Structures are given as structure tokens and as C-alpha cells.
Amino acid sequence: MGQSHNTTMTPTRVLFNEKGDNGLVLCDKYIPSELLVEIFCNSNLKTLLNCQLVCQRWKMLIQSYVWPKKVEMTLGKPFPRGKNIPWGVFYLICKKKPFERNLIKNHSGGDGVGRHWQIISQGGDQWAIENPPQGVPELPMTESVFEGKQNCFVTSYHFCFKTQQIDLIDEGFTPYVLDVLQPPIEVSEWYSCRWDCPAVYECQVRLLRDGMPLHPSFSSVDVFQLHDNLEGEKQNKWFRASHVFENYGTGVRKINFCHGGIDRSFWAGHYGSKMAGACVYVRVPPVQYTQDDLDTPPILDE
């Protein structure tokens, strides 16, 4: 009996040729890479994710050039580029827009005392909201954070403290951005006390590692602390506490913002320190291009 043979031919895999027209001819029309890139840069995120799957050329164009360009269009300023930056980093920045926005929620009490804040202590007559602030000048309306409103938190005759924790991963920052690029983290808040009652203001901001069940002081990567006795010439004025964290090393995943105070005359009511406009901004990291970053991607250099 004769033996049967399988004569089905296995197709030979064709390697991608950067010099070819694959991915550049649509409906018998040739589209230059430069024009294709412009089309991609003005497409929405879902479309770009789908286009990456069409062919090797489109994938290379989008991941090596379009995503970085899309980020710069989103931010309105240059952003670090490099062959080692995963394209998913750029995608997440475009999707969640984590840079250059205030990550503190309910920064001045417009949503009430406890909304987005965890109360640690509220001695005396407890935390309160004032609108407008009593016994002090108006908040500086030149500051955009206030959005034209005159809300502030105010403390009492025993210590009042509260805290808010920010999860940077949830906000849209990837471990690569936090550990490798280490963007500057700027924190600030306005504070004051009445003309007729001295007070104490305290602020503590900690950069925290993730997955540490211990007290924040044990899991801190870096910390900013301010203790200010407001008396005499310091009364009846608004001050701005601020600090920029830079070169903080690897491991930062969360930020803990804690503030509070007390009045120093121990008067019933709300004569303690006042605070408003708490801010945590992650700034776009400085750009230091190498020649490799400035060179035109080979796929566009035709």
C-alpha cells in the first residue's frame, strides 16, 4: 500500500522591511510616514490602541514616536523621551493627565471638614469652616487654587489635626515615572491666624513607600515639616508654606499630607490657626535630551 503524504505547504514568514511600503499604502494610495504620524497624533487613545495592532510599521510608528508626541501635546510642554521608556507610560499620562494638577481634594473646606480628609484630632470646639475667614484679611485671589472662593479650615483651643493620603499609582503615575524620572513634587498651603489671638500652625508632608503597614514615620522616603508660632507681627497675615521634593530616590508610591493647629489663648470657639489652598503638584520632569533622543526615528527617515 502506498503511503500518504501531507503536501500542505507552511507559508514562509516575511520579515518586516522598513524600506518597504507595508502600512503606507491605503486604498492604493501612498501615504508618507510623516502624514501618517500627524493623523495618529490627532486620533483618540482608543483608536491608537487599535491601530497598534494593524501592522508592524504602524506599531513602530505609534510606540516610538506618536505616544511621546501625544504626551507633549497633552501637557503643552516637552517631556523626557528615551528608547527605554515603555510606551504604556505615555499612554497612561495621556489618559489620566496626572501632571500639573492639584492632587489634594477639598483643599480649602468647600466640601465640608471631613470630605476626603481623615480627622486625627479635633479638640476644643472641633474643626470648622469659615467663609469668609474671620479676623484676617481675605485670601489672596491672585492664587488660582482658590477659584475666587473664600473658604478656609479653622482650628480651636485644643489641637486639631487631619490628614489626606494620595496614592500616586491610582492617580496615573507608573513606577517607571516615579523611580526613574523622579519628577519634582511641589507641596504648599496658605495659613494665618486672627489679629486678636495668637496661634500655632503645623504642616507635615511625607513621601511614602508602598505596602508598609507601619506608622508613616517608618515608611517615609522623605519628609517636609513646618511648625510656626503665629504671634505679634505674624498675626493677621496670610503666609504660604511650600516645599519641593527632588531626587528623592526609588520607592515613592504615596504622599501623606497632614496639617493642623491650635489657638494659644485657649478661647472657646474657633480662634486657632486657619489654613486653605493645600496643594500637591507633581511637576513635569526636566527634559535633558541626548542626541539619540533628538535624532529622527529611523522609520521616519526615508
Automatic annotation (TrEMBL):
<dbReference type="Pfam" id="PF12937">
    <property type="entry name" value="F-box-like"/>
</dbReference>
<dbReference type="GO" id="GO:0031146">
    <property type="term" value="P:SCF-dependent proteasomal ubiquitin-dependent protein catabolic process"/>
</dbReference>
<dbReference type="GO" id="GO:0019005">
    <property type="term" value="C:SCF ubiquitin ligase complex"/>
</dbReference>
<dbReference type="GO" id="GO:0061630">
    <property type="term" value="F:ubiquitin protein ligase activity"/>
</dbReference>
<protein>
    <submittedName>
        <fullName>F-box only protein 44-like</fullName>
    </submittedName>
</protein>
<dbReference type="Pfam" id="PF04300">
    <property type="entry name" value="FBA"/>
</dbReference>
<dbReference type="GO" id="GO:0036503">
    <property type="term" value="P:ERAD pathway"/>
</dbReference>
<feature type="domain" description="FBA">
    <location>
        <begin position="90"/>
        <end position="284"/>
    </location>
</feature>
<dbReference type="InterPro" id="IPR036047">
    <property type="entry name" value="F-box-like_dom_sf"/>
</dbReference>
<dbReference type="InterPro" id="IPR039752">
    <property type="entry name" value="F-box_only"/>
</dbReference>
<dbReference type="InterPro" id="IPR001810">
    <property type="entry name" value="F-box_dom"/>
</dbReference>
<feature type="domain" description="F-box">
    <location>
        <begin position="31"/>
        <end position="70"/>
    </location>
</feature>
<dbReference type="InterPro" id="IPR008979">
    <property type="entry name" value="Galactose-bd-like_sf"/>
</dbReference>
<dbReference type="InterPro" id="IPR007397">
    <property type="entry name" value="F-box-assoc_dom"/>
</dbReference>
<dbReference type="GO" id="GO:0006516">
    <property type="term" value="P:glycoprotein catabolic process"/>
</dbReference>
<dbReference type="GO" id="GO:0005737">
    <property type="term" value="C:cytoplasm"/>
</dbReference>
